[in-house]
Specification:
Layout (H helix, E strand, L loop, with lengths): L4 H8 L3 H8 L9 H14 L5 H8 L4 E6 L8 H14 L3 E6 L4 H13 L4 E5 L4 H9 L4 E3 L12
Parallel strand pairs: 1-2, 1-3, 3-4
Helix pairs in contact: 1-2, 1-3, 2-3
Length: about 160
């Protein structure tokens, strides 16, 4: 069973509030170096990992992005696009959820709803997004970024 903040506090012999300050990087000037060291050692001993779902419920920030694409498997540029999006997100401390819809409009809508229910902080869309989906995303006040790959196939010429 996963260890909790309360478990860490108990092993360290401090209050949950003190353990929280230390483990969230807010201990400077509030907690002595000795107590902070005890909390950190207890967390390491217990292999403590914060529950990010619980944290996101409290902060309303999940540090996740939803990337919805309609042609991951068919576009020759999709791999580079996904790798770039993942790399930038990861460097900023974000996790990227990928949904490939294969141009299925019902799946696009279901994926958008599902990602909103999972409290993603924003969307990256690489598809021909419908007004309905844009409306749904903006109703939830979620940022939306669109990726477009221009190839000879989809570039209009005069």
């Amino acid at each position: 069973m996963a260890k909790t903040l309360k478990d860490v506090a108990q092993v360290a012999g401090v209050s949950s509030a003190t353990a929280s300050l230390v483990l969230n990087g807010r201990a400077d000037g509030r907690v002595s170096a000795d107590l902070a060291d005890r909390v950190e050692k207890a967390a390491e001993k217990l292999n403590y990992r914060p529950n990010l779902v619980a944290r996101s419920l409290r902060t309303q920030v999940s540090k996740t992005l939803g990337l919805i694409s309609n042609d991951v498997a068919t576009s020759p540029f999709a791999g580079a696009m996904l790798a770039g999006a993942k790399e930038i997100a990861w460097k900023q401390g974000w996790l990227l959820f990928l949904v490939n819809t294969n141009e299925d409009k019902e799946m696009e809508a279901a994926a958008t709803h599902s990602l909103i229910q999972r409290n993603v902080d924003g969307f990256i869309m690489q598809l021909c997004i419908t007004k309905r989906l844009i409306h749904l995303i903006f109703l939830r006040a979620k940022p939306l970024y669109c990726l477009t790959v221009l190839t000879p196939k989809n570039v209009m010429t005069p």
